[in-house]
Write a structure and sequence with these properties.
By secondary structure, the protein is an alpha/beta fold. Helix content is 36%, strand content 25%. It has one domain: Maf protein. The chain has 7 helices and 7 strands; from the N terminus they run E-H-E-H-H-E-E-H-E-E-H-E-H-H.
């Protein structure tokens, strides 16, 4: 597989930075899919909450694979679970405020999934979960945080970036750092080494 073109089917800057930082050479071709509609369909069909990220990652990778025959396509997705509820990315700052107020003082789970697709066929899938406990921060802190971060929080399902001032929101983080950022990177790198994309 080492002669194949590698494509990331995601518009996530964080995922692209992780892959670049790990030394991978790839193209970025964001998948054009109705993520919200697909997620709702999967839930209505009774898909287990823990599998939604993997199913969405696969749909994204296959969508890009159809228009890029011969390439190895990386699809990825992340879901945030609070109990039996899946959170969406906030649509605006008020939505981010409401998300953080819901998560404040509670433990939630992030599930990040990745799928490799070649010529429309899924060749590998992996996922990891992390648990994060948000502290009971003050209203003043919340408003200062939102003002500092601005629209950057709108691209994050939990309205926080752990690699930024979002770290101040938490009391405890359990799990792999890359998984929290949106990609089970170490699993993916191991598979790409086996496939010849990186030096073993």
């Amino acid at each position: 597989m080492s002669g194949l073109n590698l494509i990331l089917a995601s518009a996530s800057a964080a995922r692209a930075e992780m892959l670049k930082g790990a030394g991978l050479v790839f193209d970025v071709v964001p998948a054009v899919v109705d993520e919200v509609g697909l997620r709702e369909h999967l839930l209505n069909e009774g898909a287990p909450l823990s599998e939604v990220a993997g199913l969405l990652a696969e749909v994204k990778a296959r969508a890009v694979s159809r228009s890029h025959p011969g390439a190895l396509v990386i699809g990825a997705d992340q879901v945030l679970l609070l109990g039996h509820e899946i959170f969406e990315k906030p649509g605006d700052i008020q939505g981010a405020r409401e998300t953080l107020q819901r998560l404040r003082g509670k433990t939630h789970e992030l599930i990040s999934a990745v799928t490799l697709v070649h010529n429309g066929d899924t060749v590998w899938q992996g996922s990891e979960a992390a648990r994060l406990t948000m502290r009971d921060f003050s209203r003043e802190f919340l408003e200062d945080y939102l003002e500092t971060e601005g629209d950057a929080v709108l691209s994050c399902v939990g309205a926080y970036r752990l690699e930024g001032t979002g770290a101040q929101l938490f009391d405890r983080v359990e799990g792999d750092y890359f998984t929290i950022l949106g990609l089970p990177l170490l699993q993916l790198l191991a598979v790409l080494r086996e496939a010849g994309f990186m030096t073993a």
